[in-house]
Amino acid sequence: MARAPVGLAGRPRADARMSPYLRLLSTACLVGLTACQADRKIRVISRPSGATVYFDDVEVGETPIEFPYRYYGVRRVTLEKEGFRRESTVFELKAPWYSYFPFDVFSELINPIPYKDHYELTFVLARESGDVAEPDLDALLRRADRLRRAGPLGPAGTRESATEGLTVDPVSTTDSAPTDDATHAPDTTEVEP
């Protein structure tokens, strides 16, 4: 009578042949280990090149640059370069249909073929237009004084504050709103420029 092969500790050894279920499980594990995730990248190009790129307020490098991203959604890209205006844009990285459940289980974990999800952003940077003009301090103080006196409801009967410096049709500047002199009493506090 033939004896069953004996393994360690005197226990009978399993047969050398694999069961079909064990073979299927090992194949699934092997495919799972070789599965590839998506190749997600954003490429940023600027004219002129050499601008510093910030992705969600984190510096990632200088243009032209290609960098990976992990999550979809609303994101911000900002470019800065000496002598040029700062450019910033908010855009949405839209998730493809195969990144939603239950399709993402196959596309991220089981699928051995990687898929590409690339975005490209191009910026044309404008030169700074020179020195910033000084504001008219007297006009600014007058307007601030009117707004301070007006209270929480805003300036009543002072259309000129909203239209100051603009050409307005004379018919539209007439004001028939009553004013309460006690509410709008002049302030005697002096403001030093």
Can you walk through the features of this model?
- The chain is of the alpha+beta class.
- The chain has a domain at 39-124: Immunoglobulin-like (Sandwich).
- 22% of the residues lie in helices and 24% in strands.
- The chain is built from four helices and seven strands.
- It has helices at 20-34, 103-110, 137-150, 159-163, and strands spanning 39-47, 52-55, 58-62, 65-68, 73-80, 87-93, 116-124.
- Strands 3-2-5-6 form a four-stranded antiparallel sheet, with no helix packed on it. A three-stranded mixed sheet has the order 4-1-7, with no helix packed on it.
- The longest helix is centred in the first third of the chain and has 15 residues, at 20-34.
- The radius of gyration is 35 Å and the shape is elongated.
- Mean pLDDT is 74; it is low at 159-193.
The top-level CATH class of the domain at 39-124 is Mainly Beta
Euclidean distance between termini CA atoms: 114 Å
Strand content: 15-25%
Mean pLDDT: 74
* Main beta-sheet strand count, sense and barrel state: 4 strands, antiparallel
Q: Identify low-pLDDT runs.
A: 159-193
Looking at CATH, which topology of the domain at 39-124 would you report? Immunoglobulin-like
Neighbour order of strands in the largest sheet = 3-2-5-6
CATH architecture of the domain at 39-124: Sandwich
Shape: elongated
Tell me how many strands there are. Answer: 7
What structural class should be given to the helix and strand makeup? Answer: alpha+beta
The helix content is: 10-25%
Total count of helical runs of at least 4 residues: 4
